Amino acid sequence: MNTAVNIAGVELKNPVMTASGTFGSGQEYGEFVDLNLLGAVVTKGVSNVPWPGNAAPRIAETYGGMINAIGLQNPGIDVFVKRDIPYLRQFDTKIIVNVCGKTTEDYVEVVERLRDEPVDLLEINISCPNVKEGGIAFGQDPKAVEAITREVKRRAKQPIIMKLSPNVTDITEMARAAKDGGADALSLINTLTGMKIDVHRRTFAVANKTGGLSGPAIRPVAVRMVYQTASAVDLPIIGMGGIMTAEDALEFILAGATAVSVGTANFHDPCATVKVIGGIQAYMDRYGVKDIKELVGAVR
What we know:
It is built from 9 helices and 16 strands.
């Protein structure tokens, strides 16, 4: 059977990758997971300078998921290039770098630094809801989505994936704006803005008050948005949002996603990505599917 998929000219051995922010840059999971088995590793967000992130507490468990307000803490592009890229190059997997920023110039600086680095794709995070400035504004305004997509595309050497925010009225409007700006692919959804209150301490569960809700609770929303987006624009889609099992992943693929990202499940089970890959192969074998592409968007 053939499990290979193509994202903007980059071939992945299978459609399963990690979701940004849940896997570090691979080092944290290297002793649990054979990274060679993954279609791609999507790194934690990388900014032009080190970001300290938000104040603690920054994570709270919720029914069917979790809320995080990490604030894209990362050591910056200099450390990433020196430490993380050489580590990932040891493995037979594709490298997708998640890029974050607070201004267009921030994004462009990172993208330009990565031009001559051995990475395969760039995922541009314009949608993270736990950063007080920058991302959320870009991700919720179609004109801003188109403008930043165009600027990043103009400077990038690698194909760009625009990561869309679900915290909008019409996801297809944002998808069309990204396509008009020159996006090579889309990834969705990022987290939904949520809140949890500790009733015993009578205060917010995370110091930021709000955070990004992820996990199984958001999956039906994510599947719906992937389906809508696949119907609206002709671009490869990486679907994500609460994928815990192969069946969850297949929902996204049948709805129109070319590939999928596994995120929150990694915290529950470090081997979740590998289990999803195996489960997809078992499904294909069971139903006589010779090529994974037969399943992409099969439900209409």
